Amino acid sequence: MEVDLCFVMDCTSSMEGHIEGAKNSIKEVAEYMAKMEPAIKIRVGFCGYRDHCDNHDRLRIFDFTNSCDEFKNNLSNVAAIGGGDGPEDVLGGLNAAVHMSWRNSIRVLLHIGDYPPHGRRFNNMADDYPNGDPNGLTAECVLGEMRSAGIHYFFGKITNETATMIRVFQGIIGEYPVFDLKSAKPEDLVKKFFEAACSAITTAITLRE
Asked: Is the pLDDT of residue 149 over 80?
């Protein structure tokens, strides 16, 4: 059984510990899945996003690999920097991830972020783009393509600022699991990421069956 697992993650300055958590947990996830019956092989990918003001640093994409060491090496070059106002380029990050080279029939996207997309439908904070994504992306379009591609969406919640986003997304694609990462201490992040990733994979497999 083969799985594509993509981490989509806010990479602005507030997210340093969570990037480290993802990097340090993925090998444990792969080794654990390989021991299951039947054995599960994983390709892992990463799509990091920041905000529109970060220009060429807005997206960091590492396409799928079956090497955990390669994945960790790729993430070692990802710094938690940038970000302008509160909202981030969430839709840009998800859209880029949807268009990565998904191959396996079981497709899992684990999104981790602490702030919502731009637009008043998602937030009531200071927002440089209150009318929504400046590139014209909409949640309906991005999530619709995700669903058409057979990608299962899961979210790791870090703050309550994403509560409205979660509701809007569920209104578009239906209920999906939300993992509570907001209470995790730095030393607990690897365990939390491991549990969230394993749960997302096993849920996707169950839904496929």
From this structure: yes
